[in-house]
Amino acid sequence: MKIYFAPLEGITGYIFRNAYCGIYGHIEKYFAPFISPSEKCPMTSRERRDIAPENNTGINLVPQILTSRSDCFIEAAKELQTMGYREVNLNLGCPSGTVCAKGKGAGFLPETLALQRFLDDIYAFSESVNMKISVKTRLGYYNPDEFYDLVDIFNAFPVSELIVHPRIRSDFYKGEPRKEYYAYALEHSKCPLVYNGNIFTRKDYDDLSGVFNSSPETIMTGRGLISDPSLADKLKGFTSDTDFVKFRQLHDTVYHEYQKIMSPDINVLYKMRELWSYWQTLFDGKDRDIKHLMKAKKYAEYEEAADRILQN
């Protein structure tokens, strides 16, 4: 089994990636939160810092690009190539309203003729420089049946991997993924496939075999790995009695690394609150302490609440 760590904007930046990789590991690829290139700027200084090789030592990182303009995609890919990257990912799955309104992410999916021209351009470039381009897609924008045409479109190009999140744009992340459409891809796609969507437990993964006749060889999960950092351990059979120790180490490492690059206190605490919005499900009976932690405005308040929560 191969496990890919999906990007979550504002959460899975290089600080979290480094901490997670060093403490847990068992991830074959980490995907960086998307770069959104413009005509004047292939990437911002913040985006560049996040994917800088010196900030991702020992991590198999795949940068993700979000755009509907092939020239902008190619310029960003060229920059990434100079940084040493040999694989990039095209984001056709982001359901954000502001993203889709600009015809990017999932908002690009209904424009099938424009999408084909875009793919013509970027794959002509990628083959000329020997760079892999994978695609992360939803089933469609308005209707899941759009996926049938999308599979045919992707089959016409050398997509290195097709990561399928079997929801449409309006589903966002709610409800059950429409797994029958991934089953269709297994039968009809010429591209290597990666399953993405609602894998939070070992049971979630095992249950996929009942739909697909066998469990997917390669999966991508983001919210699952954030909500339970030991999920990759569990999926690969590496669980041990040290899970709590690992979690405390992850928390402390991320917290202290944020303190090194951010100030004042509240900015670091905002970042930690984002993580605790996922982590709180791991701590039954700690609701009162978690509430105090989420309201903390100073390090001392936060650390006092965190210590109470994390007492083994």
Task: Draw up the topology in text.
Blueprint: E1 2-5, H1 14-23, E2 29-31, H2 45-51, E3 61-62, E4 64-65, H3 70-82, E5 87-92, H4 97-101, H5 112-129, E6 132-140, H6 146-155, E7 162-168, H7 179-188, E8 193-196, H8 202-212, E9 218-221, H9 223-227, H10 231-236, H11 243-261, H12 265-279, H13 287-295, H14 299-310
Parallel strand pairs: 1-2, 1-9, 2-3, 4-5, 5-6, 6-7, 7-8, 8-9
Helix pairs in contact: 1-11, 3-5, 6-7, 11-12, 13-14
Can you put this structure into words, describing what you see?
- A 9-stranded parallel beta sheet has the order 3-2-1-9-8-7-6-5-4.
- The chain starts with a strand and ends with a helix.
- It is α/β, with parallel strands linked by helices and 312 residues long.
- It has 2 domains: 2-236, Aldolase class I (TIM Barrel); 243-310.
- The mean pLDDT is 96.
- It has helices at 14-23, 45-51, 70-82, 97-101, 112-129, 146-155, 179-188, 202-212, 223-227, 231-236, 243-261, 265-279, 287-295, 299-310, and strands at 2-5, 29-31, 61-62, 64-65, 87-92, 132-140, 162-168, 193-196, 218-221.
